[in-house]
């Protein structure tokens, strides 16, 4: 006969203090795995809520409401902000202090933009001037002796009308300002290179496409969104909606898509090639959405609204993933995602810039590999069981300030009542005489070539 | 994998069950041969044994109150003491630091040093103890046939179920789904979970009392033995007999690799699956004639079978019974104290709630199957109403004479018919206004005459 008895004694002889890890991935060794995973998902959801502390700090210094912000991909720590009294500041986000000030504007600063290489800052305001500034980025390295320095503009261009927004071309020398019309400037010329106009209304905001450097999009107060191509002599396409768009942002990873922040509290994502229907309608805010910015991953975006909250949406999600609010934060006029996707900066009516975490329960700083793996496991297990009622209840729960909560309930009642009436009207008519229109199309009036 | 499974292979015309333990012990290496031993403890009664989940520590309880805990890796005695009371069953809790003992009147929990930590009076005169590790539940069956589940980490009594089937001391936990299987005197085997007062499954297994029950680790095999001299192997998915053997068994156990050990008097038989759930005899072991084997338990992660009998305990080598490769993060026979503490904390953090015990543990997070009776959609209901109304309108009215068939009266009668038909249907398809339906509770008292109402059984 041949006998072998499983010889496990070799393993038991350990000569070193470090324990060897043996793995056997046989599922028969692990019973009730799903129940264990579900329990871990539930605990992970609860822990996430415990550690959700998104607010990092406020940057204090402006003496009037903040109207616009700008960021640059080359310098992660820097952010520019312009206020309603003409004060422009360069902030160091890590220290939460002003590095440099750029005084000069006589009225509100309506737009700020940085050139792609980071050396130039363009600002425009209601005093009909466009100012170009050289950015002292070396001062960012050692912020101790650079606080509160004032800088001189390298050029001031005066033009005929007040400006409402500015954006710099990606990888180019052109920048566009908007006000009564769309003007395209060259950095070195004191007059616009070309001007576009479609209709007699004020154009409110402008954005250059990150993928196609010659394409730009503007939103105007006649409730329209217009696409321009600099290689053509006239505007390309116009989309008229029922309410005005306050701000537009291109998706940096899918440059043919853009999302517009609208006055009717929704954000509409469009494909620039097919403007007759919105791709997604992002609902959530209870008051006008003032500003929108995409994360550098292109997977989510942040919106700041007149209802004193900031919401983070998935790029294809119709409801917000996260909502941030503070008692001290008043009407949010501008929001920006930092270029590493970890933080948000919001500028609001109460003269402060606020720094938030993009993922509220994320542990910042360097994580040990074991910590990181554990966190990834918990995220994965939460993702797997997030549809189950107990876990969903915890993951979805957000505390809302009372006015927002009540306003949201009121909106819901109104919308439900409208829907009900619509249904009844349809039920009492001949079938087919009242076509159903998807919500994505409902807020669009028409598209014009 | 570092180690491979053990085996006992016959050459030529040899049969595996002809090999005696002494010849096996002679052939294997010295470390393995030392694992087979015989401990003669004649004075203190039949012994029951228990192993920790990682197979390292063994707990031994003699009927006359002798308790001892041994570290099987180093073959040293950790603690030995006398409780001076009848000891019916012993069970380790989540690790070797705590163990539970079913004593004469109550169940006790002791520390590793033999200190009495708790005296749990609620369990009563418990006959068998089983521990559900993932849920931290100590289950016991007592002499009244009551099943108690107690959460060891919080101390809360989770369930106290009156089985209603009399005294039984055949209890086993199914490691696959944490369901407790009880064998009863009528030949029934019932399966229980803490959140349900009725058994999940009741099976009639034998033509007489059930003497032993064992569950396979994979969760779809159950072995039962009865006084009718049969050992039956059941498939737990179809609840049907796979195989039936003519043999007696006082205790049964499945090993990690699917070997089945049956003990009968002083004889032991071990069966092995030869493909297709066909269990054939693999090894036999005969002890000294007067020894009555009480408990057989396979030691996890080792090729060893522990036997508790009336004159002490033994352990025999059974090649191929244990899982040769352990996983450090599941059960670790060579844990340091730091690893043990870490594991305790982790298992407490992911402690399962008693509600997660179910017959099919993979049902969690699946979609609930749709209701058999499909609710009719609104359109269908409307169509049906229309049809009924049409039918009612077209009913033939009796022709009345002598001026009784006035047009207005006929019209009124027709309207009444339509309303009657509609009303019947509307009651059927009454629309709920979003609130859950109020269950009409039928009370027994209403049906009984007044004199007998005090005998009405109140609903649990």
TrEMBL record, chain A:
Keywords: Nucleus, Repeat, WD repeat
N-terminal signal peptide: none
Annotated GO CC locations: small-subunit processome
GO biological process entries: maturation of SSU-rRNA from tricistronic rRNA transcript (SSU-rRNA, 5.8S rRNA, LSU-rRNA)
Localization in the cell: Nucleus, Nucleolus
Residue span, Sof1-like protein domain: 358-444
PROSITE patterns: WD_REPEATS_1, WD_REPEATS_2, WD_REPEATS_REGION
CDD domains assigned: WD40
Spans of repeat WD: 59-101, 102-143, 282-314, 325-366
Pfam families (UniProt xref): Sof1, WD40
Region of interest: Disordered: 419-441
InterPro entries: Sof1, WD40_repeat_CS, WD40_rpt, WD_repeat_DCAF13/WDSOF1
SMART domains on file: WD40
Name of the protein in its database record: DDB1- and CUL4-associated factor 13
TrEMBL record, chain B:
GO biological-process terms attached to the record: maturation of SSU-rRNA from tricistronic rRNA transcript (SSU-rRNA, 5.8S rRNA, LSU-rRNA)
Stretches assigned to the BING4 C-terminal domain: 281-361
Identification of the protein by name: BING4 C-terminal domain-containing protein
Location of the region described as Disordered in the Swiss-Prot/TrEMBL record: 390-460
One GO CC annotation: small-subunit processome
Keyword field contains Lyase: no
Compartments reported by the entry: Nucleus, Nucleolus
Per-repeat ranges for WD: 203-244
Source organism phylogeny: Eukaryota, Viridiplantae, Streptophyta, Embryophyta, Tracheophyta
Biased amino acid composition, Basic residues: 399-412
Cited PANTHER family: WD REPEAT-CONTAINING PROTEIN 46, WD-REPEAT PROTEIN BING4
Compositionally biased residues, Basic and acidic residues: 413-448
Keyword tags: Nucleus, Repeat, rRNA processing, WD repeat
């Amino acid at each position: 006969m041949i006998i072998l008895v499983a010889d496990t004694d070799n393993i038991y002889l350990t000569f070193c203090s470090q324990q060897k890890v043996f793995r056997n991935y046989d599922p028969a060794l692990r019973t009730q795995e799903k129940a264990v995973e579900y329990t871990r998902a539930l605990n992970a959801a609860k822990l996430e809520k415990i550690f959700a502390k998104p607010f990092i700090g406020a940057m204090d210094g402006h003496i009037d409401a903040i109207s616009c912000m700008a960021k640059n991909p080359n310098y992660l720590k820097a952010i520019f902000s312009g206020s309603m009294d003409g004060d422009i500041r360069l902030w160091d986000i890590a220290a939460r202090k002003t590095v440099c000030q750029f005084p000069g504007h006589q009225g509100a600063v309506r737009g700020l933009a940085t050139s792609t290489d980071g050396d130039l800052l363009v600002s425009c305001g209601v005093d009909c001037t466009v100012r170009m500034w050289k950015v002292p980025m070396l001062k960012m390295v050692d912020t101790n002796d650079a606080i509160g320095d004032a800088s001189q503009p390298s050029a001031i261009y005066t033009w005929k009308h007040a400006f409402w927004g500015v954006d710099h071309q990606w990888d180019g020398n052109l920048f566009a300002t908007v006000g009564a019309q769309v003007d395209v400037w060259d950095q070195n010329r004191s007059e616009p290179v070309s001007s576009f106009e479609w209709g007699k209304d004020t154009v409110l905001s402008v954005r250059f496409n990150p993928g196609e450097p010659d394409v730009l999009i503007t939103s105007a107060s006649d409730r329209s969104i217009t696409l321009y191509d600099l290689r053509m002599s006239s505007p390309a396409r116009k989309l008229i909606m029922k309410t005005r768009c306050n701000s537009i942002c291109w998706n940096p990873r899918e440059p043919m898509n853009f999302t517009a922040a609208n006055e009717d509290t929704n954000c509409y994502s469009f494909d620039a090639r097919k403007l007759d229907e919105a791709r997604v309608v992002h609902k959530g805010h209870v008051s006008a959405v003032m500003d929108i910015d995409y994360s550098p991953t292109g997977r989510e975006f942040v919106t700041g609204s007149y209802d004193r909250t900031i919401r983070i949406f998935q790029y294809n999600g119709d409801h917000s993933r996260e909502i941030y609010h503070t008692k001290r934060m008043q009407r949010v006029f501008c929001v920006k995602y930092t270029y590493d996707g970890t933080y948000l900066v919001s500028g609001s009516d109460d003269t402060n810039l606020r720094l938030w975490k993009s993922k509220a329960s994320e542990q910042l700083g360097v994580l040990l590999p074991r910590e990181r793996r554990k966190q990834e496991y918990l995220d994965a297990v939460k993702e797997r069981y997030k549809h189950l009622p107990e876990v969903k209840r915890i993951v979805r729960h957000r505390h809302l300030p009372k006015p927002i909560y009540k306003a949201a309930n009121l909106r819901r009642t109104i919308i439900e009542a409208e829907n009900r009436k619509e249904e009844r009207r349809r039920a009492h008519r001949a079938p087919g005489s009242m076509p159903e229109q998807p919500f994505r199309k409902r807020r669009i009036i028409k598209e014009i070539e | 994998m570092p180690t491979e499974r053990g085996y006992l292979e016959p050459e030529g015309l040899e049969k595996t069950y002809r090999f005696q333990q002494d010849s096996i012990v002679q052939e294997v290496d010295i470390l393995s041969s030392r694992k087979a031993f015989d401990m003669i403890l004649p004075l203190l009664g039949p012994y029951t044994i228990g192993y920790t989940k990682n197979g390292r520590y063994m707990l031994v309880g003699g009927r006359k109150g002798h308790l001892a805990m041994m570290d099987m890796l180093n073959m040293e005695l950790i603690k030995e003491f006398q409780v001076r009371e009848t000891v019916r069953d012993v069970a380790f809790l989540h690790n070797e630091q705590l163990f539970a003992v079913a004593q004469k009147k109550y169940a006790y929990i002791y520390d590793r040093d033999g200190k009495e930590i708790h005296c749990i009076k609620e369990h009563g005169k418990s006959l068998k103890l089983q521990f559900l590790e993932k849920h931290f539940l100590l289950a016991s069956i007592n002499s009244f046939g009551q099943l108690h589940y107690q959460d060891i980490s919080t101390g809360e009594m989770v369930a106290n179920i009156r089985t209603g089937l009399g005294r039984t001391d055949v209890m086993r936990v199914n490691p696959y789904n944490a369901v407790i299987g009880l064998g009863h005197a009528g030949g029934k085997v019932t399966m229980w979970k803490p959140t349900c007062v009725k058994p999940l499954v009741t099976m009639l297994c034998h033509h007489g009392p059930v003497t032993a029950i064992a569950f396979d680790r994979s969760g779809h095999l159950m072995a039962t033995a009865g006084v009718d001299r049969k050992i039956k192997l059941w498939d737990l998915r179809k609840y049907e007999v796979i195989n039936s053997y003519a043999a007696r068994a006082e205790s049964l156990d499945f090993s990690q690799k699917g070997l089945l050990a049956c003990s009968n008097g002083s004889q032991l038989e071990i069966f092995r699956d030869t493909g297709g759930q066909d269990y054939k005899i693999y090894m036999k072991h005969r002890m000294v004639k007067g020894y009555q084997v009480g408990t057989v338990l396979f030691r996890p992660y080792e090729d060893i079978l522990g036997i508790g009998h009336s004159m002490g305990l033994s352990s025999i080598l059974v090649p191929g019974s244990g899982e040769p490769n352990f996983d450090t993060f599941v059960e670790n026979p060579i844990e340091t104290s730091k690893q043990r503490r870490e594991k305790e904390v982790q298992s407490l953090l992911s402690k399962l709630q008693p509600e997660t015990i179910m017959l099919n543990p993979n049902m969690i997070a699946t979609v609930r199957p749709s209701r058999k009776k499909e609710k009719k959609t609104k359109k269908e209901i409307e169509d049906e109403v229309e049809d009924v109304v049409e039918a009612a309108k077209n009913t033939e009215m009796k022709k009345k004479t002598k001026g009784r068939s006035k047009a207005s009266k006929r019209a009124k009668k027709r309207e009444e018919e339509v309303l009657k038909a509609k009303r019947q249907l509307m009651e059927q398809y009454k629309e709920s206004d979003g609130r859950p339906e109020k269950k009409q509770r039928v009370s027994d008292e209403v049906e009984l005459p007044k004199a007998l109402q005090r005998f009405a059984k109140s609903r649990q």
